[in-house]
């Protein structure tokens, strides 16, 4: 099976390029496509959007419809990975499913939502963080509750970045983005995928395993 994985930013791609092969094994193929932000679900799904801006949710109706029409049955699955941020999980998932149900035909698709942000999946393995960053602040990591709504990336910054999130933000958002990608590249290789404490990561891992194992 081929997995087409859509993520909202480069740090998500950096993390999943490392983790996905460990989950699905060598019998399957995958491609992680990074977008330039999450955007919003269009109120009118047939409304024209500027695909060149590569904003994930803005383009999602067009993308899923395209996969549905071009893929043969059983060829692959689309995995949409995005942050919950401050949205209601139930409502957000309902909106995403509505996009999928509007496709005819609809591709095999799973929506995997990081609670609250993608850094929650890294924070789900504190030992991996300590392996990548031996000077990480144990008190910050120990106080973190998996998948809590707490300013997730800021929490990771407070643990591993000198001066914490406040100092990192002061460097500008381009530096923030680069640091997030560095965290992904440095921490992901150390992660134990079977024991990760993030429920939303476990959901993602299990959906990939189910799809990979059910291929005839």
Describe the structure in brief.
50% of the residues lie in helices and 12% in strands.
Helix and strand pattern: EHEHEHEHHHHHHH
Largest beta sheet: strand ordering: 2-1-3-4
- Percentage of residues in strands: 5-15%
CATH architecture of the largest domain: 3-Layer(aba) Sandwich
Helix vs. strand class: alpha/beta
Which word captures the global form?
globular
Number of domains: 2
What can you see in these coordinates?
- The chain is α/β, with parallel strands linked by helices and 216 residues long.
- The protein folds into two domains: 2-118 and 198-213, Rossmann fold, CATH 3.40.50; 119-190, no CATH class.
- Helices cover 50% and strands 12% of the residues.
- It is built from ten helices and four strands; from the N terminus they run βαβαβαβααααααα.
- It has helices spanning 10-24, 56-70, 89-101, 119-123, 126-132, 138-143, 152-160, 164-170, 173-187, 199-213; strands at residues 2-7, 29-34, 76-83, 109-114.
- It has a four-stranded parallel sheet, sandwiched between helices.
- Helix 3 (89-101) links the parallel strand 3 and strand 4 (109-114).
- Helix 1 (10-24) packs parallel to helix 9 (173-187) and helix 7 (152-160) crosses helix 8 (164-170).
- The N and C termini lie close together (10 Å).
- The model has no long low-confidence stretch (mean pLDDT 94).
């Amino acid at each position: 099976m081929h997995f087409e994985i859509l993520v909202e930013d480069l740090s998500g791609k950096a993390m999943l390029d490392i983790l996905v092969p460990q989950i699905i094994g060598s019998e399957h193929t995958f491609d992680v496509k990074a977008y330039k932000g999450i955007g919003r679900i269009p109120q009118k799904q047939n409304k024209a959007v500027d695909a060149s801006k590569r904003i994930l949710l803005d383009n999602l109706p067009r993308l899923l419809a395209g996969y549905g029409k071009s893929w043969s049955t059983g060829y692959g699955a689309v995995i949409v990975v995005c942050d919950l941020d401050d949205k209601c999980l139930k409502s957000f998932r309902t909106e995403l499913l509505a996009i999928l149900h509007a496709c005819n035909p609809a591709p095999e698709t799973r929506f995997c939502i990081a609670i609250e942000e993608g850094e929650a999946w890294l924070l789900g393995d504190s030992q991996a963080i300590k392996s990548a960053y031996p000077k990480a602040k144990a008190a910050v990591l120990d106080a973190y509750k998996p998948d809590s709504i707490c300013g997730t990336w800021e929490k990771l910054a407070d643990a591993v970045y000198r001066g914490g999130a406040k100092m990192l933000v002061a460097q500008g958002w381009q530096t923030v983005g680069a640091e997030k990608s560095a965290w992904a590249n440095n921490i992901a290789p150390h992660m134990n995928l079977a024991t990760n404490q993030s429920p939303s990561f476990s959901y993602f891992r299990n959906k990939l395993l189910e799809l990979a194992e059910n291929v005839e």
